[in-house]
Structures are given as C-alpha cells and as structure tokens.
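Figure 2 data, in text form.
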Amino acid sequence: MAPGALSFHTRAVTFAENLAQVQGRIAAACGRVGRDPSEVTLLAVSKNHPAAAVSEAVALGVTWFGESRIQEAKIKIPASPGRAHWHFIGHLQSNKAREAVALFEMIESLDSLALAAELQRQAEKQAKNVRVLAEINVAGEASKFGWNPARFLEELAALNAFSRLELHGLMTVAPYSTDPERARPVFRRLRELREQASIQLGAPLPVLSMGMSGDLEVAIEEGATVVRVGTALFGERPRKEE
C-alpha cells in the first residue's frame, strides 16, 4: 500500500469516529430537552483543513461546512465535492463582500448595517438573494464583532428593508471557558432576543447558530438549530507557517 493511501485511510477512520461521537453528543443533548436531533444542523468548520478533508466528511454524510477566510475558501470550495454547502462564519470585511456573495449559501456573520448595505449592492450586481444571520455580541466582548442586543432591535427594521438580504436568524460566539455552563446565559439570551425580533418583525427567524466543540450540548439545550464544530470533528487545526 502506498504511504499516501495509508494516511488517507487513517484520517478517514479518525473522522468517522469523531463524527459518531459528535452525533452522539447532539442526540443526547436533544434527548434531555425533548428535541429531535434532525432539528440541529451540524456545520463542520473546515478552516485550515484541506479540500481532501472535506471530501472525506462528505463521503460520511456531512454536507454543511463553515469557512472564515475568503482567500482560503476561494481555493477550497471549487476543489470540494459539489454536494458540500458553505456558510461564511468569520468576520467579513466590506471589500470581501463581492466574493462572499458569490461563494457562500449563507453569511452567518452579518454584524452591521454598513456591511448589510454592501452585501445588498453586491447581491444586486450578481442578481441573487443572500441568506444571512445577524451576529450578536451577547456578552459585549471588546474582542468580538456583532451587534449589541439592544441596538440590533433598534436597527432591525432597517436591516429587514434590504430587499436582497434574507434574514433567517441570529448567530453568536460565546466567551471561551473550560466550563460549558458559563455559556448558558449567553445562549439563552440569544434565544430570547430571537423571540423578541420575531415578534417585532411579525415573521419567524428559524435559525439560531450557537455552540461549538466545547459547549454544543448547552447550546442545543437552549435552542440552537446550528452548531459549528471544528476541532471535535477534524482534530486540531494544522498551524499555518507565518
């Protein structure tokens, strides 16, 4: 057997085992709160992992992937199976909006009206609608992007007025902690904000993207419909040389 074939097989087995564990965690969390696991989409965060890793994941039934860098996605997405669907989950600069609109089925990290205006312009040029989530900085961390919850409600009508943007729900990144329970108030507040926003709009916002490898159970218990999982699936991300 060629060395490359052995390493491919080893990676595939490892991913299969990791996937089974993550799916088990999702099912157990759903069971604790009476939810159907089919209500939760597993978004595999493939940042810093090659297209070959995406292909392995697709072969095992994973179809939703998250990327956070446009330059990396421009190379990886065309090299990945057509069955893969892509969400942008990183901070999006306005000068990358054109490429984001072209590459991704959903942009989860819409964090301002200024970015919304640029996405609207690019969507008009490409004659397409863009599915988006509003990123909310629930904990008010200076190191993170996103709307303050109160300001989001103030600007919701203006955001909803962009004809090419389809607001499907909310996203947040909880503060890092080794104790997943510390994220629970953040996730609960996002769910409550989604309910407030839905009432204000008079329309449902079905998507709550929250929870990652370390705290996905708590997020699901608080209502997550998308969990963004990287390390628990692919292992530690390879470090890129500076």
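Caption note: The first strand starts at residue 41 and ends at 45.
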